[in-house]
Amino acid sequence: MVESLSGWWELAGVDSAVGESTLDLLAQDAVDTSPNMPIAPAVEKQQAEAPATPSIMWPSDIAALREMVASGAPLPGNAYGPVRFPSVGPVSCDVMVISDLPDILPTPETNMALNADLLHRMLGAIGIDIAQCHCTWLATSIPSTGEVPENDLPDLAAFMLHQIKLIRPKSLVILGSAACKAVLSEELMHARAELRNVSHDGLNITTLATFHPRTLIARPAMKKQAWRDLQMFAKRVRQ
Predict the structure, then answer these.
(1) pLDDT (0 to 100) of residue 55
(2) CB 187 within 8 A of CB 180
(3) Distances from the Cα of 140 to the Cαs of 75, 100, 190, 194, 209, in angstroms?
């Protein structure tokens, strides 16, 4: 835990010690490009409807879903490339992490490994063990463009809501613009202003939308904004 915190503070450009009380780590030398709006109570968003006619019956448990993804079944997001990446992590968890692509897996591939390491530090800094989170992605295969086609977001969103229904987590962490637009139907910079609620199938789930680790690696100055997001999330889930 201490190692994780120290690593994140170093990555975020924060050298001060941290005590029990919350510090304003964004007060100096931080440029906040998010909309200038007050933090309000979590807002319930209208979620995407599931497609009326899925090409095949969607699995009713995560183990079956993972098998279907690995076998190349015609599920949303599973035909962009030849290699498929099923979700990882426990099927019963408090926190579910949603990315657009499976590039947060700790694999030997350099960029994915860097993303995975930074995500581990980010969540570890607020006391969340990534190994205890269910991590999934809109696209279970990687498009040649490296981006999820925007026209596919409605189908991908509906399938993600189906996965959320199966996992039934207590909270969600959404990484990046595409995943945010799919699940929350909002642009990331607006959704970051406050915690959201995802309401689906009787669930009402506290949700954080924040920057994808690859964005923070490319633009280190945004790490302080991400730290603010994480603190806001930690305060809510600890209640």
Answers:
(1) 73
(2) yes
(3) 9, 9, 26, 28, 20
User: What's the rounded Cα separation, in Å, for the pair 51 and 159?
Assistant: 9
Contact 95, 128 (CB under 8 A): yes
Contacts 24+ apart (CB under 8 A), 24-31: 25/224, 25/227, 25/228, 25/231, 26/224, 26/225, 26/227, 26/228, 29/224, 30/224, 30/225, 31/221
What integer pLDDT is reported at residue 43 of this predicted model? 42
For the chain, how are helix, strand and coil distributed in percent, rounded to 5? 40, 15, 50
In tens, the pLDDT along 160-174 reads: 999 999 999 999 999
Mean pLDDT of 131-136: 98
d(CA 178, CA 100): 6
Pairing of β 203-210 and β 196-200: antiparallel
For residue 49, give the DSSP letter.
Answer: P
Q: What is the mean pLDDT of residues 18-26?
A: 41
Dist. CA 60–CA 5, nearest whole Å: 38
Q: Position of tokens 């509906």? A: 158
Return the amino acid letter for 40.
A
Structure tokens at 40: 């309000």
Instruction: Quote the CA–CA distance of 220 and 148 in Å, as a whole number.
Output: 24
Residue 230 has pLDDT above 50, yes or no: yes
Question: Does the pLDDT value for residue 30 go beyond 60?
Answer: no
CA angle at 236 for the pair 232 and 237, rounded to the nearest 5°: 115
**What local confidence, expressed as pLDDT, does residue 39 receive?**
40
